[in-house]
Amino acid sequence: MEDTHILQCRDGGFLHLALNRADKKNALTNAMYRDLTAALNDAAADEDIIGVVFTGMGDAFTAGNDLKEFLAAGTTAGLAAPDFLRVLATFPKIVIAAVQGAAVGIGTTLLLHCDLVIAAPDAKFQLPFINLGLVPEAASSLLLPARLGHARASELLLLGSVFDAQTAYQLGLINRIVEKEALAKTVLEFTAALASKDPHALQETKRLLKSMSQGVEARMEEEFTAFARCLGMPAFKTAVEKFFKPKA
């Protein structure tokens, strides 16, 4: 991409997207959102891509939206963030985030759409919308209560206070806390493990995890349908043959 504020790197079956505006704590601009949206669309259409990894350059994940652009816009018309969030929310493949330093606003709500999140001990999360006279975005007003319960979600969204990595882990917003120097190694471990799985089964499992179908019976029927699709795929036959193959 021409805009070096988004760095792209293919590593095996994963596309790594690094926010590269370290001097501004990786605050996201319209141009950056457009590049991220295009990258996700391309990755979704690429059969060789298993998923994407979001990282931030420098000492921050992202300080959130570039407020000067938002102030200048005065309206959501013309802003590129909504398109990015729509694509991210429906992205069918695996999404991983590695977080260090500030993860403000969309830096936190983005994580609600990730499948795996790793954070360094210095990660600081915040949902400051109320402090700016704004309301939550990225469906966080739906996803946070569903994940944390009404009381904890209300505290995060109504007070807009900063919370640390340990709190985020206890709340279930992140999977693991590792030293900053180990972030890249842990991402590699995750991507290597995922690359050994069947891509179709990964996508079906993610879809089921994100499904909004209610009730045990409805979810069971949805699972049965997906299960039947997977039974007909070559990966299942290969896995079973490997299982029964005599051990050397």
Description:
- The chain has two domains: 6-195, 2-enoyl-CoA Hydratase, Chain A, domain 1, CATH 3.90.226; 199-244, no CATH class.
- Helix content is 46%, strand content 16%.
- It is built from eleven helices and nine strands.
- The protein has a six-stranded mixed β-sheet, with helices on both faces.
- α1 packs parallel to α3, α5 crosses α6 and α9 packs antiparallel against α10.
Overall mean pLDDT:
92
Q: Which homologous superfamily in CATH is the superfamily of the largest domain?
A: 2-enoyl-CoA Hydratase, Chain A, domain 1
E-strand count: 9
What string, H for helix and E for strand, traces the elements in order? EEHEHHEEHEEHHEHEHHHH
- Described by the principal axes of the CA atoms, the overall outline is globular
Counting copies of identical and different chains, the oligomeric state is single chain
Helix content: 40-55%
Task: Give the N-to-C terminal Cα separation.
Answer: 49 Å
Give me the number of helical elements.
11
Beta-strand content estimate? 15-25%
**Spans with pLDDT under 50 lasting ≥5 residues?**
none
CATH topology-level name of the largest domain: 2-enoyl-CoA Hydratase, Chain A, domain 1
Summarize the main sheet.
Answer: 6 strands, mixed
Number of domains: 2
Global Rg: 19 Å
At the first level of CATH, what is the class of the largest domain? Alpha Beta
Write the layout of secondary structure elements.
Elements: E1 6-11, E2 14-19, H1 30-45, E3 51-56, H2 67-73, H3 81-89, E4 94-99, E5 102-104, H4 106-109, E6 116-119, E7 124-126, H5 140-148, H6 150-159, E8 162-164, H7 165-171, E9 176-177, H8 183-195, H9 199-210, H10 216-231, H11 234-244
Helix pairs in contact: 1-3, 5-6, 9-10
